[in-house]
């Protein structure tokens, strides 16, 4: 019997689990260590009670949102995720195409399995996500390439000095299929991501060789000077780091623990969000990711002070299930849920949601 169509993002998870090889499911789904942070992300969001306002005269909410000076259809972006062709043969092109259809930003990972020019050719608003290459000259070349290709922002991820210990991948001896390569990495060394080293995943070996582990604030400043694109710093939890990022030129920060895939035991992003918002004030935009699964979660993040959220795994589930059309449906469901949530909370738009009070339901 065919499955009923998904009515929420969690439905895509159930379907994706049936279509993806178990090791690929684990690679996408898993966190690091004991996955304490992975589950804390959900618990923290579930504990955010939002106090709706009544009699506000709102019938239908508008979702339109301004981020980094550009207009988007809703306060949601597709989080940067590596190697999207492991989830579906059309990979990055399908997911970026869905982001274009939904008019939301698509954050392209430096570890994308499709050349960035093909991703931009979908017409999506692409923000390029960088892990710092060991060779500064190559970083500068790559920045020139993505600038030329038409990327709208540069996102530097700062929570991966080394790859988190992902036990599921270690147990599964997960390695990338040979046809999946990092299509934008100069000097590739994809052989490393396909190989086998006992006790460490090939993806971690590859990252360790390609990326510089010991970055500092001076490097971030240098990066901002190299490139006139708006700079976004992703992977911040400590409010003091958020302030330093702004001082170093960031136009936005993403409060994120990488979906529980990096240091296990760090707090949920939603737990740290209010402190980060208070610390930076209106000096930069604040986005949140890690654990967002519904329009109500987006409302929670807005009420805690975020301008927008990024959604990770659910986009890969939808991609795996239905390619571009599946991902488009996933984003449309999120928009419908958020529209309803805003109206139910008495908010005319996302800005009004940032005025809502929250209470802990823990
Ligand atoms: C399979 C997978 C690959 C990822 N690859 C990257 C990446 O290349 N760069 C990056 O900054 N974050 C990467 N992330 C982290 C996401 O950008 C995002 O922070 C996280 O998935 C958000 O949590 P969520 O999946 O619970 O929504 C990846 C996450 C997953 C699940």
TrEMBL record:
Domain FMN hydroxy acid dehydrogenase: 1-362
One Pfam family hit: FMN_dh
Superkingdom classification of source: Bacteria
Sites where the protein binds glyoxylate: 27, 131, 166, 261
Cofactor (UniProt): FMN
Active site feature: 258 (proton acceptor)
PROSITE patterns in the record: FMN_HYDROXY_ACID_DH_1, FMN_HYDROXY_ACID_DH_2
List of residues binding FMN: 80-82, 109, 129, 157, 234, 256, 258, 289-293, 312-313
Keywords, ordered alphabetically: Flavoprotein, FMN, Oxidoreductase
The UniProt record lists the keyword Cytoplasm: no
Example of a GO MF term: oxidoreductase activity, acting on CH-OH group of donors
Flavoprotein found in the keyword field: yes
Family listed: Belongs to the FMN-dependent alpha-hydroxy acid dehydrogenase family.
Protein's name in the database: Alpha-hydroxy-acid oxidizing protein
